[in-house]
Amino acid sequence: MPKRRDILAIVLIVLPWTLLITVWHQSALTPLLATRKDDRRDSHSNSRSTFAFKESCSMQNRDIVEVVRTEYVYSRPPPWSDVLPTIHVITPTYSRPVQKAELTRLANTLLHVPNLHWILVEDSQRRTSLVSSLLQETGLNYTHLNVETPRNYKVRGDTRDPRIPRGTMQRNLALRWLRETFTGNNSQPGIVYFADDDNTYSLELFEEMRTTKKVSVWPVAFVGGLRYESPKVNTLGKVYGWKTVFDPHRPFAIDMAGFAVNLRLILFKPQAYFKLRGVKGGYQESSLLKELVTLNDLEPKAANCTKVLVWHTRTEKPVLVNEGKKGFTDSNVEI
Amino acid sequence: MKSVIFSRFFILLPWVLIVIIMIDIDTKRTVRSPAAGRNGKAQQRGVRTGASANQNQSSLIYAITPTYTRPVQKAELTRLAHAFRQVPRFHWIVVEDSTMRTDLVSRFLARCGVQFTHLHVFTPRRFKRVGMPRATEQRNGALTWLRQHRTKRDAGVVFFADDDNTYSLELFEEMRSTRGVSVWPVGFVGGRSYERPIVSKGKVVGWYTGWRPDRPFATDMAGFAVNLRVILANPRAQFKRRGSQPGMQESDFLKQITNVTELEPKANNCTRVLVWHTRTEKPHLANEPKHRKDNVVIEV
To answer: Is B96 annotated in the active site?
Structure first.
């Protein structure tokens, strides 16, 4: 009998301690594993997590269970890499009520893209403080330029066939800036992309364009009166035409957001600019591209132009009827 | 005798410790893995939750986004996700106006990089007439989900994020400190550049708006946030469908859970605009053929 009791006593003592030790061991390991897997779920291998997280395991008051705190420390933008080519995003912008909102959400997107250089060109006489402070706050790598489109060239009201397409002078200024800043000897790889401030861009798009050797193209949604317009790609992976309804016989029937150019090509052809005058509606892109490449040299991206990675969204003009002629709200409040 | 007591004590000690620790684990685990339960209208999907949040830590932001299928849906959700990905401790509740979870949204959410819950509630067509409030059932569905899956111990702030608005990242840090219900200015509503609460001595005393300032809460859906505890403490607070007047959705909801005197003004005493009620144009699709002519099916 005493023997059994002894055994019972030993079991009673040993069992809870082993339980405690295993529970302590488990709780020490699994929370760590769980939080490591709980990282950003980026499907493409190139994109990096926008934030690293640090965890602190704290042993509080000799509790066996550890309370694991995960603190997301997001680094915006992602750290600069020496390996990736820089994407120079050229965005013309102009003052209107929704300008700050548009630039804010464009910045929210661009903050996820590594090695990005944002060239923002205002259509104004002077650089506005709204844009300057916005750029500073985002922390992005940027260049802030401005050039005013002369009044008689500007779009009148809501006409759909402008005398001079909006943003042309601004884009040309950015191209000139690039040519002055990056001389031919400088072999920093770069890609140039024209991003209007009201479009929507997926992050995959930027990774697709990074491998551009000359000029790459892809489908764009909501242009030309279609769900999307796209280049026609043959089985050899070459572009041979354009899947559009609106004037498919343009040399490059593509939207501004549908192509990217390697910086080297921009520098190599210093005379290539967007044509200012005498450009028919829809031919603006062609006016630049025909000086840079031929149809044969185009590189189709986005899975041979079968995926839509950029949407030509347009923001409604906000209803401001209650402002009245003189403006009701405090003009010092920036919107 | 003494040795017997000692030995008994030492035998009991580890068991007592285990009991204490079990109770401790229970109280410290504030975030549970979700049940795969089914609701009448809203079906929910398992969601990946973050690690257990210490109660002393600041709250998790729950953004409720009703959405519906239309051409620009994926674009809108994409740029929303880009904003939300930058926000720490964030949980996105997307509620589709549909009879089932659509492929487009499911696939999108799987790769969006944000912690999410994907729900769906269908609004019958008779409620989709001009002038009727929209997304009522979807928002109520999300509130129901929160009430079923969160308890008083969860620290959170609930916010209604429509999919076509624009949010600055600062807004989320402003709302995180909400104890009850907080409010702030919203751009492009009320027929003006912005609408905002009028603040005096840290309290909301009126509303600065261009449309019906006599509303009890003259704010937009994007202009307020509610602490999760308040949502849970008012289990019957819902968005009204019957007898709802246009533009009164927010007021009807907020008066069920708070008073104007209890509102917490944010955004520098409501003098900064951190969210804009932008609207996206319907895209021109006049050139789309009546029947699909392309040889591939591409999701837009």
So the answer is: no
